[in-house]
Amino acid sequence: MTRPGDPTTPGDPSPPNTSPTARPLSRVTLSGPDLGTVDLEFEGEAARNGADAGKDAGKHAAPPAAPQDTGPDFDPRLYEAALPRPDPLSAEAFLPVLDPAQFAALLDDLRGELSLVPDEATRAALNSRARLLHLNVEGYRVNHEQARSALTRVLAETGVGVRGSWERQQEHLTFMNAASGGVERDYEAATAAIEQARARRFEALVGVGARPDTTGAEDLYTQQAVMTLAREGHAIRPPEQKSGSKRVFNGFAVFSKFFVGIISGVSINLLFNPESRLYLTLIALTAGVMFSVLLLWLVDELAYRAKLAPVTPGMAPARAYTAGIVAVTALYLGVEGFLNWDGILRVTAEIAANAAQQGQLTDLNALPETDTAPPHWSLLTFTLALVGMAAGAALVQGRERARAVLERERLAARVAQLKAQGTLADAARATDHVTYLERARDRLAPPRDVTSPDHARLNERVLHHWEQERDSQVQAISSRLLAEAQHLQATLEDFAGQVQAARFPPPRRGLRALLR
C-alpha cells in the first residue's frame, strides 16, 4: 500500500519504495464533503487528490489516487476508566472430582481381568462385586449430573446479582467520567473565552486612556471622573492614609474631650463636695466628662453642618452654624473658667487654713490686708488653653469629615454623569465581561453525586451477599459429591486389590504345596 503522493506507475508490479529516507512534508489538507480525504503535499510535489487535483484537471489528467490506509474510528469509550469484567463461571470449575466415565473405564478394565482368575468361586464372587460396583458407578454418574445441574443453576442465579452489581458500578463510573470530561471541556472553553475577553478589555481600556490594570467598570468610571474633575480644576484628594501624625492628632482630639472633662469634674467636686465624699466625687467626675464630651461633640457637628450648608438644600445658612460654634465655645470657656477660678480660691483658702493650724502662720490678723484674688493666673490660663485646643480639634475634625463627604458626593455626581452620557459603555462592558466569565468558570464543578458513598456501599453489600450465597451453595454441593467420589474411588481401589490377589495368589511352600 502506497501513501498519497508517492509516485506510482499503473501496472508496475514492483513493490513501492521502502527506503528509510523520508521526504519533508510541506502541507496536509482535508477535503471531501465530510472532510474525510487527507491530502499530503511534499516539497516539490502537488497534492495527488482533493481540491488541488480538481484545479489541475484542466491541464493534465492526474493519476488515480492510491487507496489510503484509514484506521478504525476513534472510540473514546475505549480510553475511559472501567471496572474489570469477570469471566463467566462454569459448573466444571467447581467440581473437584473425576468424571464418571473414568471410574466406569476403570471398572470395565477390572471386569475384563476377572476371566483370568483361576478359581471359579472367587471369580463368581468378584463378578457379583463388579456388578454392585457398576451400580455404584451409575449412581455416581447420576449424582454427578445432578450436582452439575445444581451448580449451573446456582451460578446462573447468583451470577445475575453479581453481574447486576458490576453493571451498576460501571454505569456509575461511566456517568462520573462523562460528567468530569464535560466539565473539563467546559473549563477549557471558558478559559479560552476569558483570554479573548482580556484581550478585548486591554484594547478598550487603552482606547479610552484608562489604566490597563483596571478590573471593573466602577473603577473605570471613577478614574475617568477624577480625570475630568482634575481638568476642570476640582482636584479630588484620595482618601488619606492613616499616617503617624494623623493618628496622633485623632488620639489627641479624643483624649482632650475626656481630659478637660476630668478637669471639669475636679472643679465641680471642689465646688459642691468640700467634704470629699466618694459618691459625690464620682458624680462630679462623671458630670464633668459628660459636659465636656457633649459640648465638644456639638462643636464637631456644627462645624460639619457649616461646611455642608452652602451646597446642601434645606439646611440653615452657614453663619447660623458658625454663631452656634462661637456660642458653644464661649459657654464652654466661661463655665470652665468659673469652675477653675472658684476651685483655685477654695484650694488657696484650704492651704492657708492648714498652714494656720500647723502653726506656720502665727497671726492672720496681723498680716496686711491683701487682695482676695489668688495669684494663680497661670493655672487658669493653662486650663482655658486646653479647653480651647480641644474645641479647635473638634472643629477641625468636623470640617475634615464634611470635606470628605463633599468630595465623595462630587465624585459620585461626575460618575453618574459619565454613565448617563454612555461614551464609556463599551469599555465598561468589556471590563466587567472578564469578571463575569471568571465567576462563571469558578462555578463550573463536576456534578457531585451525593449518593455516591451510599451507592458504593450498597453495591458492595449486594455483591457480597450474592458471592456469599454462591460460595455456600457451591461448597455444600461440591462437598457432598467429593465425599461420594472419594468413597467410590476407595471402593474401586479395594476391588482392584482383590482382583490382583485372586489372579496372583501367593505361592505355597512346604506342606501347603504338597497338600495342594
Automatic annotation (TrEMBL):
Annotated spans, Disordered: 1-77
| TM spans (from-to) | 248-272, 278-299, 320-339, 377-396
The entry's keywords: Membrane, Transmembrane, Transmembrane helix
Q: Which domain of life is it from?
A: Bacteria
Protein's UniProt name: Uncharacterized protein
Q: Which organism is it from?
A: Deinococcus caeni
Source species taxonomy: Bacteria, Thermotogati, Deinococcota, Deinococci, Deinococcales
